[in-house]
Amino acid sequence: MNPNEQKLNYPWADTLPPAGGSLEVAPGVRWLRMPLPFALDHINLWLLRDQIDGRDGWTIVDCGIARPEVCELWEQVFQNELDGLPVLRVIVTHMHPDHVGLADWLCQRWNAPLWISMTDYATAKLWSGAGGRQTGAEAGGPNGVAAEAHFVRHGLQDEKAREQIRSRGDYYPSMVPSVPDRFVRLLDGQRVMIAGRPWRLIVGYGHAPEHMSLYCEELKVLISGDMLLPRISTNISVFDTEPFANPLPLYLDSLQSYQDLAPDTLVLPSHGKPFRGMHERIRQQQEHHAERLEEVLEACAQPCTAADILPVLFHRKLDSHQMTFAMGEAIAHLHALFFDDRLRREMGEDGVYRFQRI
Q: Which residue range(s) make up the domain with 252?
């Protein structure tokens, strides 16, 4: 456990939900854990006891990726964890594959509606198998040629990495083959009644187009999605669909929305373990990015590409999946400094962007 983690409180210590099972973490709130085929090998999903229009049942929050083994685990959950009751709705925090991948399957399996923000619904619909052009490394760079060109403009020269990015053209639709044709729109500040308790929606930017976290004041529980994670930093990246984006300030500003929540709130993150110490974790994230920005600024005493500063931000060997995230994050830090007038940007005769301290 790193020093930052030691400042957080993990009520269940190392206890995890069993495969295909659940662990109750608050009244009517159950924790599920599903596998992912990456270095980040799991996603946390949530079952909320519910009642809608007089029907008792469950609300699912987030879905896992579309893989047969994940469907099999869900079937075990249906058999053993629902107390014989149906799924009444599916809430998705945002459009990344591990969150929305099985939404259509779950909604059809239970004839249940999908609840999601409009921006993330539209993006998932566009990027899924039926949606036409897909792109972006968080989505896997389904338009691999466009993703490669984007990163080449930022200095990526390694041919093996470039080939891996080009070859990932079906990455998003392979994990999100379809998205429901209809949805219920989630909006910032909206209160969703779940089992008679109001859950307030809190929008977050920078990580996804319109990420929604859910907070129940009565239970003092925050389903944070990917906006607040206990052990790793939320990925904040610039990808080829929005090549001049400036997402890092959006993310840091979004964290302020959690500052008014109860200090002893139980945070239910999408990765890692449930924890208390939300305000400490927000402080850590703010400090982390401030330090990274200063390191990038120092590195840019001489002209630097995003590829040049990868060793500044990441002190480990990166696989192809991690490389796309890392390049996106490097550009995000450079853009934050550029738009803050601390760096200047020039495109060289080789078609590559370089940044230098002003």
A: 3-132+171-296
The CATH number assigned to the domain holding 48 equals 3.60.15.10
pLDDT at 2: 82
Burial class (CB in 10 A: 0-12, 13-18, 19+), 313: middle
DSSP string of 199-267, one letter each residue = EEEEEE-SSSSSEEEEEETTTTEEEEETSS-SSSPPP----TTSTT--HHHHHHHHHGGGTTS-TTPEE
What residue has token string 């909206």?
Answer: 190
* Tokens 């400042």 belong to residue: 7
pLDDT-derived band of residue 130, with 50, 70 and 90 as boundaries? low
Which residue, 60, 143, 129, is CA-closest to 97? Answer: 129
pTM of the complete model beyond 0.85: yes
With beta carbons less than 8 A apart as the criterion, state whether 228 and 258 touch. Answer: yes
Cα distances (angstroms) measured from residue 132 to each of 75, 122, 137, 225? 30, 12, 16, 27
Which residues, other chains included, contact 273 with Cβ-Cβ below 8 Å and sequence gap of 6+? 10, 12, 14, 16, 230
